[in-house]
From TrEMBL:
<protein>
    <recommendedName>
        <fullName>Sugar phosphate transporter domain-containing protein</fullName>
    </recommendedName>
</protein>
<keyword id="KW-0812">Transmembrane</keyword>
<dbReference type="InterPro" id="IPR050186">
    <property type="entry name" value="TPT_transporter"/>
</dbReference>
<dbReference type="InterPro" id="IPR004853">
    <property type="entry name" value="Sugar_P_trans_dom"/>
</dbReference>
<keyword id="KW-0934">Plastid</keyword>
<feature type="transmembrane region" description="Helical">
    <location>
        <begin position="269"/>
        <end position="288"/>
    </location>
</feature>
<dbReference type="Pfam" id="PF03151">
    <property type="entry name" value="TPT"/>
</dbReference>
<keyword id="KW-0472">Membrane</keyword>
<dbReference type="InterPro" id="IPR004696">
    <property type="entry name" value="Tpt_PEP_transl"/>
</dbReference>
<keyword id="KW-0813">Transport</keyword>
<keyword id="KW-0150">Chloroplast</keyword>
<keyword id="KW-1133">Transmembrane helix</keyword>
<feature type="transmembrane region" description="Helical">
    <location>
        <begin position="157"/>
        <end position="175"/>
    </location>
</feature>
<dbReference type="GO" id="GO:0046943">
    <property type="term" value="F:carboxylic acid transmembrane transporter activity"/>
</dbReference>
<dbReference type="GO" id="GO:0015718">
    <property type="term" value="P:monocarboxylic acid transport"/>
</dbReference>
<feature type="transmembrane region" description="Helical">
    <location>
        <begin position="128"/>
        <end position="145"/>
    </location>
</feature>
<dbReference type="GO" id="GO:0015605">
    <property type="term" value="F:organophosphate ester transmembrane transporter activity"/>
</dbReference>
């Protein structure tokens, strides 16, 4: 990849190709740089002087999602602008200082740092907002139906398997009917996906086992401790270090979860350990996902999760048969039908469909937002799930138990801010 440059000095036009990680030297008379983003091909006219003065502020800013590093003019009037591997096309043109096309510094600050987004940015914000609302709503509906199914049919291994099977079937139909383009994968992609699928399978089953033993709200309170597991695993296994605010943010997370667990009216060790194992498994899933996305072919969020579901289904099915078995399933199914009626079948179908949809939307959201924004969205999702489950299932919550949940959720939010 290279950055194309056009330099005009008086009536002379010079064209050249500048390789990556080199510099573009501009004459002192150069007063404007046009930056053309690959995202929407909309040029930005920025004065060199304004860029120099704003260089420290804009080093980490994004111009249509791409970061441009700036450096002040040095030497004999040469403005050196190091190019990163960001895919910008830069057009440098010389203008007279009195040119009517010159943009003032205040205009630059207003355009680059303005809170009023362009139509394209506004549309992107709307799209992300729709993703978030759909993500939270689908997750709430899934948790409600999942708990109803588990109350009547306490077989979490089969319930987990059905969730993955229905989602996989939905994607196979979508690919066969060409509603969604099938992913272009290779062997390296599936090799990289394998450890992600193992961690996802363990986390999925462990969370379902937890919800079969305790209230939905309690499971999600414990699962809000996932950031603590992420930091501890990254620190002691991967050798990463974090700023002190990140470590301090773990104190309310751990303390809040401990307080909520100690005051839970219907505490169950299996349910507690299931949520804890789920936290640990999903941390490793995220770590493996980061490594896996660098290997093999690039696959979009929707298809990536579809492939993940299919591989997880293949891994989970034999274990479900070994742990629970068809005989127990048949007896439990008949008992659930007698107790609930045909409506039970709808509950099973609904929890399976909504499980796939909410995960699919969450992976689609990851394509559009930063990990920080996703982390904040995940925190708010837990708040909505905990609140709705308490209302719908009329879960009795002690004031001190609610305080512990609030402290844990607050700690999760502080963690997401500290990592920014």
């Amino acid at each position: 990849m290279s950055a194309s440059t056009n330099m005009m000095f008086g009536s002379t036009l010079c064209k050249g190709s500048v390789p990556d990680r080199t510099t573009i030297s501009l004459p002192i008379s150069c007063s404007q740089i046009n930056v053309l983003s690959k995202i929407n091909r909309k040029p930005r006219s920025l004065p060199v002087g304004g860029l120099i003065r704003l260089s420290s502020a804009l080093d980490s800013k994004a111009i249509y999602g791409q970061s441009l590093k700036l450096a002040p003019c040095v030497g004999l009037g040469l403005c050196q602008t190091p190019l990163r591997r960001i895919g910008f096309n830069v057009q440098a043109k010389a203008y007279e200082a009195s040119s009517s096309d010159l943009v003032s510094d205040s205009d630059v600050e207003e355009e680059v740092l303005s809170e009023n987004p362009s139509p394209q940015a506004a549309a992107q914000r709307l799209k992300i907002g729709i993703y978030f609302v759909a993500w939270w709503t689908l997750n709430v509906v899934f948790n409600i139906y999942n708990k109803k199914v588990l109350n009547a049919f306490p077989y979490p291994w089969l319930t987990s398997t059905l969730s993955l099977a229905v989602g996989s079937l939905m994607m196979w139909v979508s690919w066969a009917t060409r509603l969604v383009d099938a992913p272009d994968t290779d062997l390296e992609f599936w090799k990289a996906l394998a450890p992600v699928a193992v961690a996802h399978t363990i986390g999925h089953v462990a969370a379902t086992v937890s919800m079969s033993k305790v209230a939905v709200s309690f499971t999600h309170i414990i699962k809000s401790a996932e950031p603590a597991f992420s930091v501890l695993v990254s620190r002691f296994i991967l050798g990463e270090s974090f700023p002190m605010p990140v470590y301090l943010s773990l104190l309310p997370i751990i303390g809040g979860c401990a307080l909520a667990a100690a005051t839970e009216l219907n505490f169950n060790m299996t349910g507690f350990m299931g949520a804890m194992i789920s936290n640990l498994a999903f941390v490793f899933r995220n770590i493996f996902s980061k490594k896996g996305m660098k290997a093999g072919k690039s696959v979009g969020g929707m298809n990536y999760y579809a492939c993940l579901s299919m591989m997880s289904l293949a891994l989970l099915t034999p274990f479900a048969f070994a742990v629970e078995g068809p005989q127990a399933w048949a007896a439990g199914w008949q008992e659930a039908l007698r107790a609930i009626g045909p409506q039970f079948v709808w509950w099973v179908a609904a929890q399976s469909v909504f499980y796939h949809l909410y995960n699919q939307v969450s992976y689609m959201s990851l394509n559009e937002i930063s990990p920080l924004t996703f982390s904040i969205g995940n925190t708010m999702k837990r708040v909505s799930v905990i609140g709705s489950s308490i209302i719908i299932f009329r879960t009795e919550v002690r004031p001190v138990n609610g305080l512990g949940a609030a402290i844990a959720i607050l700690g999760t939010f502080l963690y997401s801010q500290a990592k920014q």
